[in-house]
């Protein structure tokens, strides 16, 4: 003590601090008590020091932990006292008292050692600080504290959290605290009844955190015995040679428990025989005859009798041994009651997850359906009105997408470029469609198969031209920022904004087309030409003009669909052919010449594809295969589609 | 077309004599085969390289499948966009045996050197690992159950495309799917099949396909120059036989009926003919012919993969027949030979590029564009295709009805008449 | 005279429109019958139902001595059972010769394999020559039927019908587009045919029907309005109403 005093006076004399440091303040005492390990600053040993500070209940403890974490704690080399310090310049420190944060004065930094906690220690300090943060007046601080606890939960937090809940005023934060408290209860509570109650309260909760908490509780271990024990912790009984428990695994378990003779793999047996090869024979059996497993078994058995190799179980013995034992899984991570409660809660969560996945799937299917609708509606118009199969429709989609790409090269603003690209794509493909109608299709009316082939010729030419211009590499069509991200409904159900936009676009087009077809002069004329071209012509409607406009309109929509599709898929010269068959399917399934039919067809095809993909998620190719097969079968029963025209109109 | 009318005479004359085009075709095919043999490396003076003999052999197979396409489309009016799928199925059927047998020989060879004689299981495992290692599997999928047997796989060359066509055709024709609907449906079928084969767990090596088919098992000693000629002869024989068969089918009343079905299906029904059965017969028969053509083609090509089955291949087949002139057998052959050889020439980089000053047209890139556009032109301006040239030479122009010659499609004609 | 075809209580509707409404009709084994009616009376639909092109919503059709129900049979089976039909517009196979057209129609086995193996005999050629004479196309036998005039096509189609040797012949407006002389000839052929079989002629032209001189059935709005001789029906008040307008 004398020593310290002397040092203190010395320090005062040198530094001329503004006030004296409280060397015997309670917080300083706690620090001094653990001075050695604090200075040592090792993650392994620092624990007690942090705990001591946090548990001290001293008002200054929080500030000390904070400053420590922020590397603002220094220790006087001579007195060993801790201070807070700020660097005034490279040589001088302004120091403060740890007890009350009062400024002591300035001192040369040569006299002090800075405490430099590494990141591990800072994390531990942070965890200790949590309990202070939980009662912090700043709500953001409190939420952050909750996150910290959730990330790295400890048994000790439980009590702290319970204390904090009582004083919490903010309802949202209180709810989050209660939820976290229940999660911690599940993990750390002493009383199983409490844990079970907490588990049950989470039945059907979709939070990922709940599943992360519950899953470790239902961990099991595979065990074996003569009979299934009557205890409650048996999760399930497995029979060997089932999918859940292959025969070899079951037997290996017995071997590892010294309950059975080892077995030998075919390769090892072969190697053992080869090792004992003498003069063209193994154990007196000619090598040439060892070309069946049975012969090799016999030879091996002879070797075993001679003591040259370890005896092993034969297949029959393996079967007999397996028959003698039962195999079961036992809960190992929690008492049976808790594990069972967790299992049943997980089950109810799974059910709810399944429902929500169904919902998510529905959204996916809807967005796919809107893409198919956009891709197919132009085709439905040209096919429905003109009975013209346009195999180049997919290439019009591609042209639209490339138009979008080119616009983005010129106009760097993505929002603006999309706004320009949509009408421009319509214009480009409208022009292409009109040109194609005038130059080719007009001459082939009533020769549907030849139209199909001629438009196919155009299709391959357009595809190759695009390849020659833009190369084979996929070109990006970047969506504007406000279309990035997803609308998240819960942890499972979410949908990206692009898909919503495409859905809205599809709805817009449905409305627009219905409007044009049913409310405008053009629509009236188009319907007239559809139903009876000669009669329409004699009433002063020019069918050629109508056909041309219709074809242009259908192609123009394909261009817009191209921009929309380009936003979420790659733009390549072959993208058209990816959609053409599905588009035809959509039109045919829906019923030719009917907008609502196309909508239904798109919904059916989209739902079907997503549904099959869900059943077999690893394999989208198989999904497409089965979808097409389904459609082929569907057409067997409704050859004219869902909405079929009957009577004379159908025979046009 | 004189072959369509029944001659007044009641006596039976040989097919070839009644239809000079058959005789001419067979003579040309025979001379061509002889010529190639004489000029080949294997048996002749070596002017034609082995790889070109293979190209010619493959072309003959394509002619055969074009013949089938002409029968089903040009004569029966079914624009099938699935016949190259049948062609591919035939190739897969024979390819499985070729690959299995060759791999088996290699595996047995390598195991013979080992200390213990191999068990059947070890051999099978060895083959499976060799064949399926590339798709990460080491067991034989069920479809390979008969791959060890050449007779069974040869039967499959015929049976698999045939059954496939039979089932598909029965479903489609039963529900009266016709015209463009049927074309789209066949295209969808082809797409489904190729997508299925693209999967790694289809059991047929996914997109790797089957390879090494040019090597005949246990005939390693025979040089490719000889093997290529064997297949060339086989292809020529198959084409000749196929041509005779098709000519026989279209010559009689059967030919009348299927052409009538093409022109007015409903009317044929009211005549009492079971139209669906006729279409099914033709569809299945042509699928079988396509399968045989494929089985001859792929050992010459050496490799088959699902790309070969993609819908585009079948559409190209229709293009060949259309350019050659459908509704006449030699038209299909001419179209397939002309377009596929031209295509080989252009895409092979042999065609001279055209320098326009500001841009150089490289045919490797622009050939498809030219093909597509010329196809449109043929459809528009020459519906009879190259075969129409023969009419000019022989001066057998079609009857000049109302000044409109619109090819075999009757709809336009009737529409035109109705307008008058 | 026994009944060959009996249609009873047949109805069919297209999208709510009743094309045929509770129609009943019968015809004997050797009878010529004219069916008349204004546009939209359901004449063509009536034929479509008998030949299997359209399936009725309700009703029964029995055919022949065994009372075969036609409702479950396909078009080709019905045709094979002996019902032949001539369409309003002449539909012959224009790409093929007159002889080929007739040869196809000739009453022979219709299965694909028997057709494939079929080779015409001298008798077949003789029958075709005979038919061609009957319809006045002997000199055109080897021309493409597309080259024929409209009337000749009509006759070729009638010839094809006769070649089928049907027991029931359904003829839709045979006289349309014919010259008076050709009409005369057509009437003769039809009357001749009706000696050995049942013939139903659908016609607009009252003069032509009068010349046929047979029993007449008047259809209106999908059901039978009147039946009897031509003089009987033309004096019927309701028929006059329907034909001459209200």
TrEMBL record, chain A:
Q: How does it sit in the membrane?
A: Multi-pass membrane protein
GO CC terms of this entry: plasma membrane
Pfam families the UniProt entry points to: BPD_transp_2
Sorted UniProt keywords: Amino-acid transport, Cell membrane, Membrane, Signal, Transmembrane, Transmembrane helix, Transport
Ranges annotated as spanning the membrane: 365-385, 417-436, 497-517, 548-568, 580-608, 620-637
GO MF term list: transmembrane transporter activity
One GO biological process term is: amino acid transport
Where does it reside? Cell membrane
> What residue range is the signal peptide?
1-20
InterPro entries in the cross-refs = ABC_transp_permease (IPR001851), ABC_UrtB_bac (IPR017779), BCAA_transport_permease (IPR052157)
Q: Which domain of life is it from?
A: Bacteria
- Xref: PANTHER family: ABC TRANSPORTER PERMEASE PROTEIN, BRANCHED-CHAIN AMINO ACID TRANSPORT SYSTEM PERMEASE PROTEIN LIVH
Alphabetized NCBIfam families for the sequence? urea_trans_UrtB
Q: Which family does the record assign?
A: Belongs to the binding-protein-dependent transport system permease family. LivHM subfamily.
> What's the protein called, per UniProt?
Branched-chain amino acid ABC transporter permease
From TrEMBL, chain B:
The membrane topology of this protein is: Multi-pass membrane protein
* Residues covered by region (Disordered): 401-420
Coiled-coil region(s) at which residues? none
Source taxon at top rank: Bacteria
A molecular function annotated in GO for this UniProt entry is:
branched-chain amino acid transmembrane transporter activity
Q: Which GO terms describe its cellular component?
A: plasma membrane
- Where does the UniProt annotation locate this protein? Cell membrane
- What UniProt keywords are attached to this protein's entry? Cell membrane, Membrane, Transmembrane, Transmembrane helix
PANTHER family tied to this protein: HIGH-AFFINITY BRANCHED-CHAIN AMINO ACID TRANSPORT SYSTEM PERMEASE (PTHR30482), SLR1201 PROTEIN (PTHR30482:SF4)
Q: What is this protein called?
A: Branched-chain amino acid ABC transporter permease
Question: In which organism is this protein found?
Answer: Ruegeria profundi
The record lists the lineage as:
Bacteria, Pseudomonadati, Pseudomonadota, Alphaproteobacteria, Rhodobacterales
TrEMBL record, chain C:
Query: ABC transporter domain spans which residues?
Result: 5-246
Q: Which SMART domains match?
A: AAA
The terms describing its cellular component in GO are: plasma membrane
Q: Which GO terms describe its molecular function?
A: ATP binding; ATP hydrolysis activity
Give the InterPro entries listed for this entry: AAA+_ATPase, ABC_AA/LPS_Transport, ABC_transporter-like_ATP-bd, ABC_transptr_urea_ATP-bd_UrtD, P-loop_NTPase
Query: PROSITE patterns under this entry?
Result: ABC_TRANSPORTER_2
Coiled-coil boundaries: none
CDD domains, per database record: ABC_Mj1267_LivG_branched (cd03219)
Q: Which UniProt keyword terms apply here?
A: ATP-binding, Nucleotide-binding, Transport
Domain of life according to the entry: Bacteria
NCBIfam families per the record? Answer: urea_trans_UrtD (TIGR03411)
Q: What is this protein called?
A: Urea ABC transporter ATP-binding protein UrtD
Q: To which species is this protein native?
A: Ruegeria profundi
């Amino acid at each position: 003590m004398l020593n310290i005093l002397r040092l203190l006076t010395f320090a005062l004399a040198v530094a001329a601090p503004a006030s004296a440091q409280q060397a015997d303040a309670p917080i300083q005492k706690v620090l001094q008590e653990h001075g050695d390990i604090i200075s040592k600053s090792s993650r392994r040993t620092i624990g007690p020091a942090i705990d001591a500070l946090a548990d001290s209940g001293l008002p200054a403890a929080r500030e000390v932990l904070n400053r420590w974490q922020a590397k603002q704690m220094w220790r006087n080399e001579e007195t060993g006292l801790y201070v807070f310090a700020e660097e005034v310049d490279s040589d001088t420190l302004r120091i403060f008292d740890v007890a009350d944060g009062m400024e002591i004065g300035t001192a040369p930094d040569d006299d002090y050692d800075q405490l430099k906690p590494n990141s591990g220690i800072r994390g531990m300090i942070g965890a200790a600080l949590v309990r202070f943060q939980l009662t912090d007046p700043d709500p953001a601080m409190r939420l952050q504290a909750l996150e910290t606890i959730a990330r790295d939960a400890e048994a000790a937090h439980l009590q702290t959290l319970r204390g904090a809940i009582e004083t919490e005023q903010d309802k949202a934060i209180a709810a989050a605290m209660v939820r976290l408290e229940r999660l911690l209860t599940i993990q750390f509570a002493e009383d199983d009844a409490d844990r079970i109650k907490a588990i049950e309260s989470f039945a059907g909760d979709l939070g990922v955190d709940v599943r992360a908490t519950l899953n470790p509780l239902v961990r099991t271990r595979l065990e074996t015995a003569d009979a299934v024990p009557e205890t409650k912790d048996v999760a399930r009984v497995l029979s060997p040679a089932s999918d859940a428990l292959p025969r070899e695994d079951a037997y290996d378990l017995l071997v590892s428990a010294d309950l059975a003779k080892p077995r030998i793999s075919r390769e090892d047996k072969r190697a053992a025989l080869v090792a004992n090869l003498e003069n063209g024979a193994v154990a007196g059996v000619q090598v040439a005859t060892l070309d069946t497993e049975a012969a090799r078994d016999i030879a091996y058995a002879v070797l075993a009798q001679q003591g040259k190799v370890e005896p092993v179980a034969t297949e029959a013995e393996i079967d007999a041994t397996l028959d003698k034992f039962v195999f079961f899984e036992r809960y190992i991570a929690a008492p049976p009651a808790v594990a069972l409660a967790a299992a049943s809660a997980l089950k109810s969560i799974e059910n709810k997850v399944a429902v929500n996945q169904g919902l998510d799937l529905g959204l996916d299917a809807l967005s796919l359906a809107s893409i198919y609708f956009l891709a197919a509606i132009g085709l439905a118009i040209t096919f429905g009105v003109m009975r013209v199969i346009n195999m180049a429709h997919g290439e019009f989609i591609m042209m639209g997408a490339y138009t979008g790409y080119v616009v983005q090269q010129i106009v760097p603003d993505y929002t603006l470029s999309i706004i320009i690209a949509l009408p421009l794509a319509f214009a480009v493909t409208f022009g292409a469609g009109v040109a194609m109608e005038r130059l080719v299709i007009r001459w082939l009316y009533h020769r549907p198969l030849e139209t199909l082939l001629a438009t196919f010729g155009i299709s391959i030419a357009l595809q190759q031209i695009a390849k020659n211009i833009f190369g084979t590499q996929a070109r990006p069509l970047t969506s504007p920022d406000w279309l990035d991200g997803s609308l998240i409904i819960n942890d499972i159900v979410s949908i990206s904004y692009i898909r919503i936009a495409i859905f809205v676009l599809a709805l817009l087009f449905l409305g627009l087309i219905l409007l044009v077809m049913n409310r405008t002069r053009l629509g009236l004329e188009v319907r007239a030409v559809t139903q009876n071209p000669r009669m329409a012509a004699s009433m002063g409607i020019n069918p050629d003009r109508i056909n041309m406009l219709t074809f242009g309109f259908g192609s123009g929509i394909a261009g817009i669909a191209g921009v929309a599709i380009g936003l979420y898929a790659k733009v390549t010269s072959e993208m058209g052919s990816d959609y053409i068959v599905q588009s035809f399917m959509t039109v045919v399934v829906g019923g030719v010449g009917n907008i609502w039919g196309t909508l239904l067809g798109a919904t059916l095809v989209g739902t079907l594809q997503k549904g099959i993909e869900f059943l077999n998620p690893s394999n989208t190719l198989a999904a497409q295969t089965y979808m097409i097969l389904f459609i082929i079968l569907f057409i067997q029963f409704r050859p004219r589609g869902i909405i079929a025209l009957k009577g004379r109109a159908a025979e046009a | 077309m004189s072959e369509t009318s029944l001659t007044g005479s009641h006596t039976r004359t040989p097919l070839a004599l009644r239809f000079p085009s058959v005789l001419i075709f067979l003579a040309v095919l025979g001379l061509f085969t002889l010529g190639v043999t004489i000029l080949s490396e294997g048996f002749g003076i070596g002017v034609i390289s082995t790889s070109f003999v293979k190209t010619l052999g493959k072309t003959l197979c394509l002619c055969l499948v074009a013949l089938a396409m002409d029968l089903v489309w040009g004569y029966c009016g079914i624009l099938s966009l699935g016949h190259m799928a049948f062609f591919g199925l035939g190739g897969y059927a024979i390819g499985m045996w070729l690959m299995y047998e060759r791999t088996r020989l290699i595996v047995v060879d390598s195991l013979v050197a080992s200390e213990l004689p191999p068990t059947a299981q070890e051999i099978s495992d060895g083959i499976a690992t060799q064949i399926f290692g590339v798709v990460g599997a080491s067991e034989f999928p069920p479809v390979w159950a008969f791959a060890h047997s050449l007779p069974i796989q040869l039967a499959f060359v015929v049976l698999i495309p045939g059954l496939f066509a039979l089932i598909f055709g029965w479903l489609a024709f039963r529900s009266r799917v016709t015209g463009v609907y049927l074309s789209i449906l066949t295209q969808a079928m082809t797409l489904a099949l190729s997508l299925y084969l693209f999967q790694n767990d289809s059991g047929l090596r996914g997109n790797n396909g089957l390879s090494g088919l040019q090597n005949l098992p246990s005939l390693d000693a025979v040089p490719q120059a000889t093997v290529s000629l064997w297949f060339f002869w086989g292809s020529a024989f198959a084409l000749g036989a196929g041509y005779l068969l098709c000519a026989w089918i279209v010559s009689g009343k059967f030919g009348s009926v299927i052409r009538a079905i093409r022109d007015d299906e409903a009317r044929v029904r009211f005549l009492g003919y079971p139209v669906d059965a006729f279409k099914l017969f033709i569809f299945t028969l042509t699928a079988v012919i396509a399968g045989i053509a494929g089985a001859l083609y792929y050992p010459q090509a050496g490799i088959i993969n699902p790309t070969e089955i993609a819908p585009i291949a079948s559409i190209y087949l229709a293009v060949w027949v259309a350019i050659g002139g459908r509704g006449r057998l030699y038209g299909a052959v001419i179209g397939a030979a002309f377009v596929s050889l031209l295509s080989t020439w252009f895409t092979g980089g042999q065609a001279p590029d055209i320098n326009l000053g500001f841009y150089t047209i490289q045919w490797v890139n622009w050939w498809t564009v030219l093909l597509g556009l010329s196809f449109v032109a043929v459809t528009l301006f020459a519906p009879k295709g190259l075969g129409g040239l023969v009419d000019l030479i022989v001066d057998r122009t079609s009857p000049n009805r109302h000044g409109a010659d619109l090819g075999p499609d009757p709809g336009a004609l009737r529409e035109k008449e109705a307008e008058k | 005279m026994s009944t060959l075809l009996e249609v009873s209580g047949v109805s069919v509707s297209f999208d709510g429109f009743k094309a045929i409404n509770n129609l009943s009709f019968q015809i004997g084994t050797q009878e010529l019958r004219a069916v008349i009616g204004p546009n939209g009376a359901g004449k063509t639909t009536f034929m479509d139902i008998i030949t299997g092109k359209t399936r009725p919503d309700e009703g029964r059709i029995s055919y022949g001595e065994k009372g075969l129900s036609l409702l479950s049979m396909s078009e080709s089976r019905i045709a094979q059972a002996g019902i032949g039909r001539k369409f309003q517009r002449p539909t012959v196979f224009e790409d093929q010769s007159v002889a080929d057209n007739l040869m196809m129609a000739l009453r022979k086995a219709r299965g694909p394999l028997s057709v494939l193996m079929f080779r015409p005999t001298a008798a077949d050629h003789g029958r075709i020559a005979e038919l061609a004479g009957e319809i006045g196309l002997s000199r055109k036998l080897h021309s493409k039927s597309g080259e024929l005039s409209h009337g000749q096509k009509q006759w070729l189609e009638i010839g094809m019908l006769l070649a089928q040797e049907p027991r029931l012949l359904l003829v839709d407006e045979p006289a349309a587009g014919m010259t008076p002389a050709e009409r005369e000839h057509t009437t003769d052929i039809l009357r001749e045919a009706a000696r050995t079989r049942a013939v139903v002629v659908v016609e607009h032209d009252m003069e032509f029907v009068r010349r046929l001189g047979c029993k007449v059935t008047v259809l209106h709005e999908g059901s039978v309005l009147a039946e009897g001789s031509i003089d009987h029906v033309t004096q019927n008040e309701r028929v006059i109403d329907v034909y001459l307008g209200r």
